[in-house]
């Protein structure tokens, strides 16, 4: 999942992108309209993203970095792209962290009168285990700032319960996710500083259900490490209500997660050489790793299969790109970004000329357009292509974060581009056991791949 997901102002580019769409210039032609129509026809009639995703999620499943499933996904990606007849397919070695969840987590509320209630919880990624059962009273807070203001004796020896919900008033759900994310990322570290024995964090979701949402958390390098668990939104509401009636209740938590030594893994890369300017590279990608609770369908199996599909669509339609186009299945976005960093490091060391990088990491829902990070002149050039994508519902070119995996390339490319799709349902299933293949719509997924291929075609033909 790319973070921060929400759109942000990018200086003059923001002004340019909020003005009325520019008309197509003489640079684009009827030939381009016909070519893009061919791309969409091929995707909608013969698209392979959905069936590739079916295999990835059904036969391999969740793919946390360092796991056997992640290694299986690497081999699957390599073989699948080799079968596409690309000019080159290869693996790029990268060392990744290896964290294991262990047995299913258990949590129980115990009231002062002896009554108990089970909570739906999961360990946050990177958390230490509880080393048996950990039992303590609970102090509820709404923010890191509120925690910092509490007297030490109110926190010491307790679980800190971070219960600030995502703001439902934002139309862009990623903005709410970004604002609420500090408690997940830093809650345990801040709780430990105040002498707490653990952190309980409300799941980052606008849905009210029983699915706890995992995600990465971080400790201070020289600080104490206390266990951190996510509660489902229903569980968080229940615990909050119980605390109001019985402030002395306790929570008993049991987690067996652990951090293991780093292990070797790979980015998977396939490319079509440019017919006129092979030294100029356009990278497209998604992250191959996923959290382990579900199948990693929307996060980010869809992004991987769409990126691979871009190459297939260019080949199937006979639209040989003038610039080199690479599909990169990045490893370790979820808990380290090692794959993205390695790709950027090697590109720099090899002196490669990267023209643009595009990422799909917001789910495989209905396409809306693209978020762009570039200088004003480059933004204006990309914006002239909006009319060509408007018939397909993918013409919203707006300022915003492009993608976590491609961000390390920022100093090496003219434009970072994030595929943008409808986000209203994404955080209902994000990082949960509910992120499964059945939540993906075939037509929405294939339309997304076609949208990405259409923009890649234009960049490849006209440059930036």
Automatic annotation (TrEMBL):
Entry-linked Pfam families: Peptidase_M28 (PF04389)
- Top-level taxon of origin: Bacteria
List cellular component terms (GO).
Answer: extracellular region; lysosome
InterPro entries hit by this protein:
CPQ, Peptidase_M28
Per its UniProt record, what PANTHER family does this chain match? CARBOXYPEPTIDASE Q, PROTEASE FAMILY M28 PLASMA GLUTAMATE CARBOXYPEPTIDASE-RELATED
Describe the protein's quaternary organization and the partners it interacts with. Answer: Homodimer. The monomeric form is inactive while the homodimer is active.
- This one is known as Carboxypeptidase Q
Q: Which organism is it from?
A: Hymenobacter swuensis DY53
